[in-house]
Every structure is written in C-alpha cells, then in structure tokens.
Amino acid sequence: xxxxxxxxxxxxxxxxxxxxxxxxxxxxxxxxxxxxxxxxxxxxxxxxxxxxxxxxxxxxxxxxxxxxxxxxxxxxxxxxxxxxxxxxxxxxxxxxxxxxxxxxxxxxxxxxxxxxxxxxxxxxxxxxxxxxxxxxxxxxxxxxxxxxxxxxxxxxxxxxxxxxxxxxxxxxxxxxxxxxxxxxxxxxxxxxxxxxxxxxxxxxxxxxxxxxxxxxxxxxxxxx
Length: 224
Ligand SMILES: O=C(O)c1cc(=O)[nH]c(=O)n1[C@@H]1O[C@H](COP(=O)(O)O)[C@@H](O)[C@H]1O
Hints:
Blueprint: E1 5-8, H1 14-24, E2 30-34, H2 35-50, E3 56-62, H3 66-75, E4 83-87, H4 92-101, E5 107-111, H5 119-124, H6 131-144, E6 149-151, H7 157-163, E7 168-171, H8 190-195, E8 200-203, H9 205-208, H10 213-222
Parallel strand pairs: 1-2, 1-8, 2-3, 3-4, 4-5, 5-6, 6-7, 7-8
Helix pairs in contact: 1-2, 3-4
C-alpha cells in the first residue's frame, strides 16, 4: 500500500531538500513543496525534486482575484503537480477558475481554516463560531465549485468527509503522540487523522527535524 504520508520539505535550501527526500523516500508517499521552497528555487527546484519519482504536492495556497489565480495555475501546468492548493476564502469564482485552469492530472484542493488558527484567532479576523463551522462552510463551497477536496485539521476531517464522501482530504498539523506542536493549534496524531478519514497526512518537522528523518518516518508509518 502506498503511504498516505507526504513529507513537508520546508526549506529554501535545495541541497538540503534533496538530502531529506533521499533519506525518507522509501517511507513516504509523496513530497510536499511549499512557499519557502518555491520562492527560493522556483520551477528548477521542483524539476530537481521530481527526480525522486514521488508525487509532488505543490502547496502554494493561491489566493487572489480569479484571473490572477487562473493564470498562475496555468503557469504551473508544466510541473504537473499531483496536488495544488488554493485558499477557499478566495471565493467561488476563484475556485472554479483555478480548477478549470489546472491540468487533468492535478488535484486542486482548497485550504479551509489553517491548522495554526484556533477559535480565538478566527474571531480576530471576523469569523464567528467554531473552526469546524467554517471548515464545513468552506468544504461545501469547494465541493460545489468542483474542486477535488480540501485541507483541514484532523479535528474536522470526519465532519467534512461525512458530507463529501468522495472528496480528497489533506490533513496537516499532524503530530505523533506527545510531539511538539510548534505553531500548530489544531493537531491530532497520524493514526487519528487516518481513522477520521484523511486521504493524505502532511508531516513536516516531526520528520525533517528528527535526528534520523528516515527512522522518524518509519516510526510514524508503523503507527498507521
Ligand atoms: O496546506 C498545507 O499543507 C497546510 C495547511 C494548514 O492548514 N496547515 C499546515 O501546517 N499546512 C502545511 O503543512 C506543513 C506542516 O508542517 P509541520 O507543522 O512541520 O508538520 C507545513 O508545510 C504547512 O505549510
């Protein structure tokens, strides 16, 4: 079975990214490249990481007017990422145009509520109610706009999946039991996230900051 773990390669240093990917490639299902990596290394960096033969999740969290996002998605076609993120808060037209602009082999998934936010952070940006209410609302929007799935925390994934059974559910903010949270506020264990319906587990620092990243990835895999 292919591992549901995508390792978040969050570094601007291409050589370090290649070294990490080389160490963990047999115990993860894919590589997640985000803003930090892409801003530093661009298309060239992604092409280099594609050489590991694993699916690439390009996590750029696009969020702008529909025309700008659609053009950005078109500019990424050549990279053929397996998964690409946009922010659900960009609204229906932006989501529809992003999906229409993506290649057929790319899953476009909408970030709902960042896992670094709690209910009090949501209140600060004018979102009343609980994170799970906002996730449910944005998941409905993403589904009706024709997207492939959403990004949410393990605390909401069961609710979202109940309403969208064939959706693709990306769950970051995943921590082995007792692991350091860092800036994550809505975290669950890898096992909990899978049991609740995650399609993909995004795991960064618990693997990449470990003394032995390969061992860390194996240990997490063994809990699944
Ligand atoms: O879209 C994401 O992947 C994402 C969404 C979200 O709500 N929270 C979140 O942490 N992420 C990403 O998931 C990764 C989590 O990294 P760690 O906290 O180190 O495991 C980072 O690369 C984040 O950019």
